[in-house]
Amino acid sequence: MNTTATSRFADRGTDIDVLRVFCAGDGRFGNALGVVRDGRTHPDEASRQALAKELGFSETVFVDDPERGAVDIYTPGVRLPFAGYPLIGAAWLLDLEVVRPQAGEVWVRGDGEFTWIEARAEWAPPRTLRRYASAEEVDALEVPEPGEWIYAWAWEDEAAGRVRARGFPGRGDGIDEDEATGAAALLLTAELGRALNITQGLGSQLLTAPGPDGLIELGGRVRLERTMTI
Predict the structure, then answer these.
(1) Which CATH architecture has domain 128-219?
(2) Would you say 24 and 203 are in contact if contact means Cβ atoms under 8 Å apart?
(3) What is the pTM of this model?
(4) The CATH classification of domain 3-105+222-229, taken from the options 3.40.1000.10, 3.40.50.300, 3.10.310.10, 2.30.42.10
(5) CA distances (Å), 121 to each of 57, 58, 184, 189, in order?
(6) CA triplet 93, 97, 102: central angle to 5 degrees?
(7) CATH 3.10.310.10 residue ranges in the chain?
């Protein structure tokens, strides 16, 4: 975190857990997530948006009720009704069976290695799914100019459902590339209609599986990177 953020919020005593969500099998990679366990430290939308911007993570989640799983999600620039990796991270950290973002009730399960949520693709913010001919083409992409949110993908092994992907938010808020994007994985799964094993960014792993009634399971590994007070 930069020194500006430290000085601006130092008197608030806000505890923030920094997680890595959608880690690879060896614990590396994953997308950095800030979790403010006590949302009362930033009780309104303006203060939460300011903190999310200062922290600079792809997303920051504020916990409003840890027993009910009520959470509030922000990127550095906007509030989100739903996002995959903040919900997986918060559920893992707080050991929850259900999380409740603005979009609705999201059920959670764990299998020892992965934490899974059940969600609907229509909850995901808009993403442009752009298919390429090979994983090598995806690897070679340059960060595009700010504009639409692009999820670039290609089959690594179509028969096995293995996908290579990169996410470019295009927001111009300092997040040029998203290391792991659960919402985009939901959209891609809904479009293809099958379970996927996605490698995104530097090596993060996202798993998906279509379920009944339009639900999609989204799973990943989580680890606690550090806890800080600002």
Answers:
(1) Roll (3.10)
(2) yes
(3) 0.91
(4) 3.10.310.10
(5) 23, 20, 9, 8
(6) 85
(7) 3-105+222-229, 128-219
**How many other CB atoms sit within 10 Å of the CB of residue 149?**
17
- CA separation for the pair 213, 77 (Å, rounded): 33
Half-sphere exposure of 64 (CA within 13 A, CB side): 12
Lookup result for tokens 């994953």: 30
DSSP class of residue 178 equals B
Tens of pLDDT, residues 72-103: 999 999 999 999 999 999 999 999 999 999 99
pLDDT of residue 4: 37
Assign 3-state DSSP to the chain and report helix, strand, coil percentages, each to 5. Answer: 25, 40, 35
Per-residue pLDDT tens digits for 51-64:
999 999 999 999 99
Residue in the structure block whose two tokens are 């366990």: 37
Q: Is residue 67's pLDDT more than 80?
A: yes
Q: Which token pair is 145?
A: 């100019």
Place of tokens 């409003």: 64
Structure tokens at 17: 């857990």
DSSP characters over 55-77: H--SEEEEEEETTTTEEEEE-SS
Extract the tokens encoding 9: 């919020």
Residue 32 has a CB neighbour count (10 Å cut-off) of 19
